[in-house]
Write a structure and sequence with these properties.
Length: 313
């Protein structure tokens, strides 16, 4: 799998996800390992980041490698220089590129012109590193994935897309409550339905948050306005007003249900004040696990860890 890209969860098979989770368990237990000494990861971000940037930087350092952070303004991605030229130039210096872009198409161009692996560090379409780490967190908390039910409440956005694909691949039931104009994209849903057919996962869409959350093992939400959509914030606040995860909604889930959010959160909007600080919330473990899962991912993608990932394209 060396030299392959991770632009979408659909670049992985269920076996790959199982192996990444088991490697993440190992990485978390073992801490520092010299698997990637001499390797460099470029981080090229068009949008702000706390978790993704820092977790990739520390992950590389703990594996003996190094990172170079490039804001898109510095590089002039697509303005000072074409995306394809940036990809070809960077490929000559670094061993992998993790990129956060507004448009998923920018990532696809980067990947198609790069000679080194490109990792999606969030685009408007997907956030695969988040979803993989989230499955690791769910596994850590629940001891399994298959047969559990995750209820996503809110916008059918990049995080929802990657979680939907990851749940469908691994046999985890996925329920999503969104306003009708903010449903997940049909193309992603069809892909997930194909995976669910094989894995036995059930996918369920409703406009009614209570229906989605009733009896769920995991309640998940994300911001109503993603980065790049700020001009729509007022309209979205109105449309999503009845989609807030609060203690009343959470009480409909199983008694031992966990609450997840990728962060950053807007307390008082998609989550009621205080609820992310309640015992059911696992958001800070979830944030930490980004690093452990990405260590596993980097070790596999950059060839430091010899494990066969069948199905990884
Ligand atoms: N969850 C997440 O990706 O956070 P950042 O935007 O801070 O990287
Ligand atoms: N959906 C959010 C996720 C941030 C980690 C966004 O794209 O801004």
């Amino acid at each position: 799998m060396e030299g392959k890209d991770l632009l979408s969860v659909s670049d992985l098979g269920s076996l790959d996800i199982d192996l990444l989770i088991s490697d993440a368990v190992d990485m978390k237990a073992r801490g520092w390992l010299s698997l990637l000494s001499g390797k460099t990861l470029a981080l090229m971000f068009e949008k702000p980041s706390l978790r993704t940037r820092v977790s990739f930087e520390v992950a590389m350092r703990q594996l003996g490698g190094q990172t170079i952070y490039l804001s898109s303004a510095e590089v002039g991605l697509g303005e000072r220089e074409s995306v394809s030229d940036v990809a070809r130039v960077l490929s000559g210096y670094v061993d992998a590129i993790a990129a956060r872009t507004f448009s998923h198409q920018t990532l696809e161009i980067l990947a198609s012109y790069s000679n080194v692996p490109v990792i999606n560090a969030l685009s408007d379409l997907e956030h695969p590193c988040q979803a993989l780490a989230d499955l690791f967190t769910i596994y850590e908390k629940k001891g399994e994935l298959r047969g559990l039910t995750l209820a996503f409440v809110g916008d059918g956005n990049n995080v929802a897309h990657s979680l939907l694909l990851a749940a469908s691949l691994t046999g985890m039931n996925f329920r999503i409550a969104s306003p009708t104009d903010y449903r997940v994209q049909e193309r992603v849903l069809h892909l997930a339905q194909g995976y669910a057919f094989d894995s036995g996962a059930e996918i369920f869409y409703t406009e009614e948050p209570r229906l989605a959350v009733s009896g769920a093992d995991v309640v998940y939400t994300d911001v109503w306005t993603s980065m790049g959509q700020e001009a729509e914030a007022d309209r979205r606040r109105q449309t999503f007003a009845s989609y807030q995860v609060n203690s009343e909604l959470l009480s409909l889930a199983k008694g031992d249900a966990i609450l997840m959010h990728p962060l950053p959160a807007h307390r008082g909007e998609e989550v009621a004040e205080g609820i992310l600080d309640s015992p059911q919330s696992v958001v800070f473990d979830q944030a930490e696990n980004r690093m452990h899962l990405q260590k596993a991912l980097l070790a596999v993608m950059l060839g430091g860890l010899e494990i066969p990932l069948a199905g990884y394209r």
